[in-house]
Task: inverse folding
């Protein structure tokens, strides 16, 4: 029962994009061999205040960050509202100094104490208090709709209590890395306390971030730099956010010079380059993870020799260059190479047709037909599946490659109608992998059951001190690489595109593409 609770508690760490729901991610990688034509800003350039910046987002049904259900709207609301915890450059959760002066965890791991800054102010001039933090937590638990961006991040919170200038957050289950779940915005209790959900959706936002609302209509919203941000003051004075209908429209607006910055995945990146647009690219490792999975209900496929044959049949460097156009990084496990938890010593299997042939023969699979499944909408995975099928056939395996539309692909996964599949997840930042590898997880499409793996997952979840956390995740990654319940392929890259006029250090974080927008300036 405890394992099931843990899996449910931590589900907010993962949004499934290829094997668990949602739309297939965009599929056309950029040609990274193309060179940018814009020279980076001079190191001697001095920031200047003023100017107008234009961004885009979908139509907001609400500007309350705890009610909002749209990711593009959340990006913009992150300019108005501060979060309790943020990510550092290595994807490590740390308390946000704009709101908190410190945090501590009880010996049993079930209570987190958050110390609230005493000098922080809301944009209406009122003080930010521990009660605001407690109210926001309870609001997220009890008022936010089920599809709100941050709703599930409160699933492991039992209650919150004010204690002087601090808030005690009581957890259902101990979780040493609860900081990943505390990355949600805080709203002022005095402003929102007496409003019902319906009126909350219509209220103008009051936050503590670098920008505040200046105006809104059906076509756009206007922001202006806050006079008293809890973080640093912004150089750019005004931001206009136009309403667009799709990601494609966002890219087109940037290409046409209507907007000054655009977060893009692979297809948007490629489209911008194809248009010969001059721009800066700030690329980063996204949460999109591609891998190969196996059906462990098939005794032949469940043999480790079979998985080793597949692992050695893949030309990884060629796949990275020719399939993903280098817009990705190789990753043997679902821990991002950009993460502080990534173990660089984890083994990468090498392309070796002789080894693949030997392992196939050891598995007694020569001539056995292997059903390889991939969803037809995803061009990179289709191409990888074709390479795998070709190489397996070259060493003596018979391959039935099935490229199916999304709905049929998901149905085949659920029915176990495959031997090998090409899949992917959009992983967020919390590194809990039980959803895809634990014996009792419904998203474990491999039907993989291994008590040792369950134990390593539990150890990684329970570890509290940094050394113990790193050790536990090192063991977990090495066991994944050895056991191969999945074979990791890549984490894809994404990028923030900015116009040449946008200067300053553009620092992108996985969960906040406008992370340091207050440091940008215009020339």
Result:
């Amino acid at each position: 029962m405890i394992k099931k609770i843990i899996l449910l508690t931590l589900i907010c760490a993962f949004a499934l994009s290829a094997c668990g729901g949602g739309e297939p991610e965009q599929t056309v990688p950029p040609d990274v061999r193309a060179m940018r034509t814009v020279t980076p800003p001079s190191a001697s350039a001095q920031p200047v205040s003023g100017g107008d910046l234009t961004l885009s987002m979908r139509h907001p049904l609400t500007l309350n960050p705890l009610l909002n259900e749209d990711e593009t709207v959340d990006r913009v609301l992150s300019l108005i509202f501060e979060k309790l915890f943020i990510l550092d450059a290595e994807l490590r959760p740390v308390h946000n100094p704009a709101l908190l002066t410190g945090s501590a965890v009880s010996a049993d791991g079930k209570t987190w104490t958050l110390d609230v800054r005493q000098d922080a102010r809301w944009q209406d001039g009122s003080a930010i208090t521990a009660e605001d933090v407690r109210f926001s937590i309870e609001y997220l638990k009890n008022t936010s709709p089920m599809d709100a961006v941050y709703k599930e991040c409160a699933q492991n919170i039992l209650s919150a209590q004010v204690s002087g200038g601090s808030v005690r957050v009581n957890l259902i289950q101990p979780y040493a890395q609860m900081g990943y779940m505390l990355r949600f915005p805080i709203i002022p209790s005095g402003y929102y306390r007496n409003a019902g959900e319906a009126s909350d959706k219509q209220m103008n936002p009051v936050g503590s971030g670098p920008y505040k609302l200046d105006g809104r209509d059906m076509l756009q919203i206007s922001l202006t730099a806050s006079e008293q941000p809890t973080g640093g003051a912004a150089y750019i004075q005004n931001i206009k956010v136009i309403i667009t209908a799709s990601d494609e429209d966002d890219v087109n607006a940037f290409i046409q010079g209507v907007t000054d910055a655009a977060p893009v995945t692979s297809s948007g990146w490629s489209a911008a380059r194809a248009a010969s647009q001059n721009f800066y690219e700030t690329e980063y490792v996204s949460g999109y993870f591609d891998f190969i999975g196996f059906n462990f209900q098939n005794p032949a496929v469940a043999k480790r020799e079979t998985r080793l044959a597949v692992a050695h049949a893949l030309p990884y460097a060629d796949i990275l260059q020719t399939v993903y156009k280098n817009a990705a990084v190789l990753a043997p496990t679902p821990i991002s190479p950009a993460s502080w938890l990534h173990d660089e010593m984890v083994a990468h299997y090498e392309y070796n047709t002789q080894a693949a042939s030997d392992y196939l023969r050891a598995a007694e699979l020569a001539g056995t037909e292997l059903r390889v499944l991939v969803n037809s909408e995803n061009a990179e995975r289709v191409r990888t599946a074709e390479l795998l099928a070709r190489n397996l056939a070259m060493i003596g395996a018979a391959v039935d490659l099935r490229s199916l539309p999304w709905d049929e692909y998901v149905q085949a996964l659920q029915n176990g109608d495959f031997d090998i599949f090409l899949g992917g997840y959009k992983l967020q930042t919390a590194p809990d992998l039980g959803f895809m590898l634990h014996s009792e997880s419904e998203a474990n499409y491999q039907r993989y059951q291994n008590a040792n793996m369950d134990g390593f997952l539990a150890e990684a979840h329970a570890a509290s001190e940094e050394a113990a956390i790193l050790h536990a995740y090192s063991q977990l990654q090495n066991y994944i690489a050895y056991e191969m319940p999945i074979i990791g392929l890549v984490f894809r890259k994404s990028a923030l595109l900015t116009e040449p006029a946008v200067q300053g250090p553009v620092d992108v974080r996985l969960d906040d593409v406008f992370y340091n927008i207050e440091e940008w300036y215009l020339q």
